[in-house]
Amino acid sequence: GPAPKWQQLIEEIDSLPKAKQKMISEMLSALIVQARN
């Protein structure tokens, strides 16, 4: 599974309000796309 650091991040994100979760997931998606280029 994910490294402990990622696990902790996921749990923190999971405790946020849905609107914040959506914002973070969109930001992460954009960062991943950039990282692949």
From TrEMBL:
This is Transcriptional regulator. The lineage of its organism: Bacteria, Pseudomonadati, Pseudomonadota, Gammaproteobacteria, Enterobacterales.
